[in-house]
Amino acid sequence: MYGWIWRHLPGNAWVRAVISLVLVLAVVYVLFQYVFPWAEPLLPFNDVTVDGQ
Amino acid sequence: MAVSVFGELLITAGLVLGLFVVYSLWWTNVIADREANKQGDRVRDRWAGGPGNIDTKDGIGFLHVPAMGGGEVLVKEGTSHKVLNDGVAGYYKDPIKSALPEDKEGNFTLAAHRDGHGAKFHKIDKIKKGDAIIYESRDKWYVYKVYATLPETSKYNVKVLKPIPKESGAKKPGRYITLTTCTPVYTSNYRYVVWGELERIEKVDNKRTPPAELR
Predict the structure, then answer these.
(1) B112 to chain A nearest CA, in Å?
(2) Which chain B residue lies closest to A41 (C-alpha atoms)?
(3) CATH number of the domain at B29-214, please?
(4) What per-residue confidence (pLDDT) applies to A50?
(5) Contact residues on chain A for B16, CB-CB shorter than 8 A
(6) Which of the two ends of chain A, N or C, has the fewest CB atoms closer than 10 A to its terminal CB?
(7) What stretch or stretches form a coiled coil here (chain B) (predicted)?
(8) What residues does each domain of chain B span?
């Protein structure tokens, strides 16, 4: 999978490394900004109130 | 080939879970502290010059608990995730409506996060009997003394929020404060509860000199 991506990136090794880094950062951004905030309320780690439910 | 793709997916899943921990325990604190400071500054600005009405949108006051370390916690209305995730303490609207400190009697009931999102009640286990909990409003310091703690209770135990919280040993109407959060740390299996009773009220002077407990 990662090998496949690496082989399909353009340019020499340096250019590929830079593009890879940008891709990784983009994935982390999407996770922190959208995926984790969505997932968090669904997980039972952060309920702090007493309630009847 | 298929095996190596599967292996890479497993590694990826592990990395994502690791990132989620980083997100929960660090990034949400960064975001929440920033938001809480912003909202707290707005409240202080309004107190410094704005109209005298309490505005429940930005917050009604600040909680100071010396036993939990320095710093103030903004207090706002409601205990939904949306409110608490801004790194504030919220007062209950349901299942049992909280009293406010200025009310003649009742229970001022608050909740805040133990971990992540500001983790404002992280050190709730450091609070001991006799410690002070101070609530600062625009013109008064309300000094409460802790008289009971409950290190572990069910999340269904809504009775701890009652105007006279009997489980704490309280028998007659009074001016109580109740802090709730989750326990043990990093999970939400149980609730941790701390009760205090109002000891005295001090007027805020023009230098906002804090009460002796905070000096």
Answers:
(1) 6
(2) B81
(3) 2.40.260.10
(4) 86
(5) 31
(6) C
(7) none
(8) 29-214
Q: Which pTM value belongs to this model?
A: 0.88
Most A CBs within 10 Å, among B12, B23, B117, to test the A interface: B23
- A36/B8 touch (CB, cutoff 8 Å), yes or no: no
Other beta carbons less than 10 A from residue B30's beta carbon:
11
Is the CB of A48 less than 8 angstroms away from the CB of B116?
no
Q: Say yes or no to pLDDT of B7 above 60.
A: yes
Give the pair of three-digit tokens for residue A3: 């090998």
Annotated active-site residue B135? The verdict is no
- Strand B72-77 relative to strand B89-91, pairing: parallel
Quick one: CA torsion of B97, B102, B105, B106, rounded to 10 degrees? 20
Catalytic residue among B133, B161, B182, B193: B182
Alpha carbons B152 and B111: distance in angstroms, whole number: 15
**Chain B nearest CA to A19, separation (Å):** 18
Reading the block at residue A25, the tokens are 């950062």
Residue recorded with tokens 């450091």? B126
Per CB-CB distance under 8 Å, the chain B contacts of A48 are: 79, 84, 111-114, 121, 180-182, 188, 191
Q: In chain A, where are the structural domains located?
A: 2-39
- In sequence order, the 6+-apart residues with CB closer than 8 A to the CB of B24 are A36, A40, A45, A46, B115, B116
Q: What is the mean pLDDT of chain B?
A: 92
Residue for token pair 């983009």: A26
